[in-house]
Amino acid sequence: MGLKITQVDAFTNKPFGGNPAGVCILAEPGEAEWMQKVAQEMNLAETAFLYKQADGYSLRWFTPAVEVDLCGHATLASAHVLWEEGHLNLTAQARFHTKSGLLTAERKGDWIEMDFPSQPAEKTTAPEMLLEALGVRPTYVGRNQPNYIVQLESEAQVRAIAPDMKLLKSVTPAAMGVIVTSRATSPEFDFVSRYFAPAAGIDEDPVTGSAHCTLATFWQEQLSKAEMVGYQASARGGVVKVRVAGERVFLGGQAVTVLRGELA
Q: What digits encode the pLDDT tens for the residues 45-55?
């Protein structure tokens, strides 16, 4: 029997929405080269690899091209699998030891809430080629270690943006990606966003939990609210609840299993 791998759609309550992630629970630590090859074979935005430790699980995330330091949707998918497949009691907290420190997840009814580090951005002057690649004139541009954040005037502009991915990849090698955001027009959401990371092998990520570690702090300042609901307006779409608490951001999402298989 081969090693089991599960595909989960995260930040959605319906199959074929949200962001798909692979989840692979290992008996022992895996070799990075092998995990990268599995992630390339799965060809999803991220594939997560876990193995049990004394106090939780070690967790690493790989895109088809690189290992990343923080991934929200694959963490959500991992917690979902641990509870769904009986590795954890439904009332137990999921604890993950990662390159971004200890991350935890807890069930909140039909939702899963994760405890992540906040990643505030500072205002910056955007490179002209970045704006050319995006084809926009933003109202604000910020930067932190993993991302640029670009604010536009309207939700319609966010939904309509069509970046030049080849150019965007060439001007963002040092940054994992670009968050594009605006206030939401729809009353059920506070803000909308999209996320592009061609340098990491992902032209557009369907729903990006880690980006909401930046979006949460940005929109908290803009809207003077600590609890908000964001919608990532990709083709698949997904909903992320955010709650800011000091230097931590709590991300809420739902998840559904869509595929179970075995690696040969």
A: 999 999 999 89
Q: Each residue of 191-245: pLDDT tens digit?
A: 999 999 998 888 999 999 999 999 999 999 999 999 999 999 999 999 999 999 9
Whether residue 140 contacts residue 151, with contact meaning beta carbons closer than 8 Å, is answered with yes
* Spatial separation of the C-alpha atoms in residues 41 and 53, rounded to whole Å: 27
Rg (alpha carbons) of the chain, rounded to whole number? 18
Contact 238, 140 (CB under 8 A): no
Whose tokens are 């990371």? That residue is 197
Question: Quick one: which of 8, 7, 5, 63 has its CA closest to 204?
Answer: 63
Q: Are 206 and 18 in contact (CB under 8 A)?
A: yes
Residue 16, CA distances (Å) to 112, 237, 245 in order:
19, 10, 32
Dist CA 202 CA 248 (whole Å): 26
Which residues are part of the catalytic machinery? 46
- The answer to whether residues 262 and 12 touch, using CB atoms and an 8 Å cutoff, is no
Domains in the chain, ordered, with CATH?
3-108+253-263 (3.10.310.10), 122-246 (3.10.310.10)
- Pair 148, 168: CB distance under 8 Å: no
CA 156/CA 149 separation, integer angstroms = 17
